[in-house]
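Session log. Operator J.P. requested a structure for one protein chain; no other inputs attached. Running the standard single-chain path with token output.
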Amino acid sequence: MKKTTPTKVITVYAEDKKGLLGQILMFLNRKDYPVHQVSAARTDIAHMVLITLEVSIPDDRLPLTIAKLENIIEVYHVSGFTGFEAELWQAGYFHFAKDFANSRFFALMQKHGATIAGVTTEGFVIQKTGTATDLEVFYNLLDGPGLISYCRNGLIVPESLKMLQSL
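Structure written below.
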């Protein structure tokens, strides 16, 4: 039976330079650390991006990996989060048929903090933020013939935003 390595979250604060994300991913790939999710976002600090990666990496290799990533010229700071420190937040997008809208549906949206993000010719798109578990619970409540499509994106560890204040 293959031993699984628990996932960690690595956040990278860096100058927004072409090829940086590729360089980080190539480094992790060379070490054979599977990357499960990646999110890159601009920050309110000019020319700085926040890259968040969910990676399977052994506990004892995390400090060395952080040190190596901090040696990349464009990188200002790298943090690693393990276990319950790494509460990942994502955005879920749900595309529903027009005829799916009813009072029960809107009550569920309100109860779970979802909002209408847009309207399409087939229906409408709602957005909900939260952990993967939050999104899965909401998905299971709404799954059925009215749900046209669903996706999750974005990846943030709320704790990582505190680091921007010190940079």
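Operator note: The domain at 89-156 is CATH 3.30.70.1150 (Alpha-Beta Plaits).
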